[in-house]
Each structure stands twice: as C-alpha cells, then as structure tokens.
Write a structure and sequence with these properties.
The protein is an alpha/beta fold. It contains twelve helices and eight strands. It has an eight-stranded parallel barrel, surrounded by five helices. The longest helix has 21 residues. The model has no long low-confidence stretch (mean pLDDT 95).
Length: 307
Amino acid sequence: MKKRYPVTLMAGPCTPWTPDYKLDERALRAEICALAKAGITSLYFFGTAGEGYALSRDLFSETTAVILDECAKHQGMTPMIGIIGTAMTEMVDRIGLARDMGARDFQAALPCWGAMDQRDVRYFWKTLCAQFPDCRFMSYNNANRTKTKISIADLVALAEEIPNLAAAKCSTRNITELYEMATAETGLTFYVVDLGYEYASMFGSVGLISSFICLDSAHLWAYFNAGQRQDFPLLIQMSRYIVELLSAFDTVDASLIDSAYDKAIGRVADGSFPSRLMPPYTGLSEEDFQTVAVAMRRVVAKYQEGS
C-alpha cells in the first residue's frame, strides 16, 4: 500500500538558545546546514528535543520563520513543525501561523493537561486535520506526556477516516506494538526511535527518528538502510552501537527532561552548540557532560575504526 509520508531517516533538531534565552539563529542555521550535508531531508522541529513545550507564541513564530527560510535553501529538505500544547485552540492557532509562513507538514501530540478517551482522540484528530486539508499530519503518540495512548489499531482506523493523517511516531520498545506497526496494511507511515527500529525492521518497513544523526550520520544511515534491506547481521551490529552510545548516559541523573540528553549529544557533535535549556528545565552539569562526551566519543571512534 502506498505510504502517505516517506519512509526515511528523520532528524529532530534541538533549538539553541542564547544566554538570555532568545533564539540563537546562527546556531540553528548551522545545525540545519550540517544535517543537510549529512543527507537528511526530513527534519522534525519542536518535539521534545526542540523544546516545543517551552515556546511562547512569539518565539514559536520567530523560530519557525528561520526554520522555513533556512530549509528552503537546501534542495529537497522537508521541515515538519511540531505542535505541543494543552488546548486544541492553541494548537490550531500555531498551525495556522506556521501554515501562513509556508509550512505544510506538522507533528502534533494530544493536548497534555488531562487524559482523553477514544471519542476525544477521534474528535481531536478529525477536527485538527479537517481545518488544514492541504497539510499532512503526524501523530506523536506519547502516552508518558499526554496521559493518553492510542493503540496501533486505532491509529490505522483514524487514518482510514482522515486522508491527511499521514504518519505516526511511536516511541516504544514493546515488541507487540513494533510488530503491529511493521505489518499494518495502511497508508500511514510509522516512525520509531533508535531502539526498537531493529526489531520492527525484521517484519516490515518503518521510518527512523534518531537522536544520534548529528554525531555520526554515516553509521545512522547504515543502521536505517540495514533495516530497509533486512540485513540482519548489520542491523544487529548497528543496534549494539546505539546501545553503547546510550550507555554513555548511565552515570547521569535519569530524572532530567529528554531534551537535556538530546542537547548534550548536539554539544558532543559540535562543541560550540549551546546546550542550555529553556527554564525551568536544566541540562547536564558540566562535570556530567564531560564524562558523557568522553564516553560517547570513545564509542564513535571504536565503530569508525572498525568500519
């Protein structure tokens, strides 16, 4: 069945801040350029890594304008704008802002103040997508944040009703869910994260959103392509690489928000990248970062030498 959104390797860029918590435009443009050089054309902004939960309306508008302007300079680059909010009206407002600037691809999570039942979920997605029929949408199915989990079967059913619901990101390592995504007969394109991709790829084709592209794009492309070809020996080898990279964070406080780890990876890749987070969230301490950086660079060097 033809997919509504490409099956590819997607990056979720971080949003860099200046010391007074304004957009660091230079760093953002450099980040997008680096991803373009790595062959990445699908970029998802304002997820957890991009701190989409922390943006004021004005900062969202300013940053989106920079994103769309820079992405337009790179052939084939397709930016996806993330929408996180507590109210559907707020989310519709931000989609409208970005659409008026030229955005046509959006990733949205369910409103995150209270849990929703399946009637609420259906109403949300039908209403949101119907207001912007010329746009494509990806569902960010993250029950830890939204308090509501949409089953794979329900996502497939929603896509049958909603022609511009094109994809779903499901951050799971549940083998049943990964199998269901890989084998679903649907136009919906499923995306998984670094760990989980290797298992899903055993049964079908899924997209990959990786936190490590900025660090070692060549091996991440190898990981993605191994899954698409079902090259199982290489897929297993590359999944071990991912596990070893993640193990660099073993000594870090696990209570930090996800973007703290993503920004640390960005700084390991580019020492000039600002890793500060928008308050009230805090990132790694300098001591923790240096420990992580040494461990992560050691893992990258090991696999690059073995290539």
